[in-house]
Amino acid sequence: MRRLRALLPLGIAAAMLAIVVILYRFPTQVLAAVPSVRTLLSAAEPVAFLLAATVMLVFVGLVIIVRSRLLGDRTLGDDEPRTEATQSLFRDGSTTRGDLGAGFDANYETATDYGGTSRNQREAARRATVAELGRTAATTIQRTTSDDADSASEAVGTGDWTTDDRAAGLLADEEGPSVPLALTVWDLLRGRDPFETGVAHAITAIERYYNPDGTDQSARDAADRAGSAEGSDG
């Protein structure tokens, strides 16, 4: 069943491409059946139209695959750990670990429990996780810089508080940036949950305010630790 769900997006994209090929190879029959496409065909070079349509369909297929990986249900193996899911997110001696309490742990576990909770529960838990991370980021900025509470919250909302695109996009408000699609696709190709990776990067970005000498390597290490529990299941 999981294999059928994985092949469905490819089947849809292949069917759409087949329609374009039929339109290109048998225009007379298609125009007789659907006269409204005559204007479109007369305004475009046939080869250019076919190439453009193919590129568009490949892109649509990729988007469908990404969306299914992001929103689809996953079944976790019986041997995969389901407790203390947040432990791998924090380095030794983490300051942020003390700022994020048991509520964060519970929400994060629910948000990443693809086998035991419904999609609505996961989405609600993700919103709560992001909200608490945002509050912690703003508090940390205020605590370690000269910014007041409003300025710190605004920096988090606009994404200006960090140069880490994953962290900035995850915690930004509706008017702020989002996580770049290329990074999301890259996480999926590497078999990692983009949300888990984003949380790991956000925590590392927050901790960097306490340790300004930290490098991007620490964020990568945190993402590696967060993704280690997933294995190759993605």
From TrEMBL:
The chain crosses the membrane at residues 48-66. Keywords: Membrane, Transmembrane, Transmembrane helix. Pfam families: DUF7269. Residues 76-104, 142-163, 211-234 are annotated as: Disordered. Residues 84-97 have a biased composition (Polar residues). Residues 225-234 have a biased composition (Low complexity). InterPro entries: DUF7269 (IPR055693). The keyword NAD does not apply. This is Uncharacterized protein. The lineage of its organism: Archaea, Methanobacteriati, Methanobacteriota, Stenosarchaea group, Halobacteria.
